[in-house]
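Tokens as discussed.
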């Protein structure tokens, strides 16, 4: 039974401590303190929302810039590919011209050397 009396005594002592004071003033003071804390939390939350909106806008701008840069990069890659193809065609053309020129020079050298051999033979044996 003494165990039942202890919780009652605790509650009665808490209530008797409040009886001597003005409860309404204490409730008003508590309400003011809670209101101040909640207003501060609300301001912090609004600040976080503003920062989130700003960061979201920045991410959108950065994403758009990245997409634009990606388009430019793709365009540059296509231009490089076209230039490489053009250079390869030009090199094939130059190679063909060079081979044709070498063939012509070879024939001219054969004709000149053949003429020299014939001239030398005629001079040596023909008198």
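Sequence:
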């Amino acid at each position: 039974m003494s165990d039942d009396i202890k919780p009652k005594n605790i509650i009665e002592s808490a209530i008797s401590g409040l009886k001597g004071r003005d409860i309404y003033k204490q409730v008003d003071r508590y309400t003011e303190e809670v209101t101040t804390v909640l207003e501060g939390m609300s301001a912090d939350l609004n600040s976080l929302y503003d920062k989130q909106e700003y960061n979201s806008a920045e991410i959108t701008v950065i994403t758009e810039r990245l997409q634009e840069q990606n388009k430019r990069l793709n365009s540059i890659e296509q231009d490089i590919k076209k230039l490489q193809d053009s250079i390869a065609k030009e090199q094939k053309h130059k190679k063909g011209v060079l081979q044709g020129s070498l063939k012509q020079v070879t024939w001219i050298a054969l004709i000149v050397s053949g003429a020299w051999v014939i001239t030398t033979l005629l001079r040596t044996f023909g008198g």
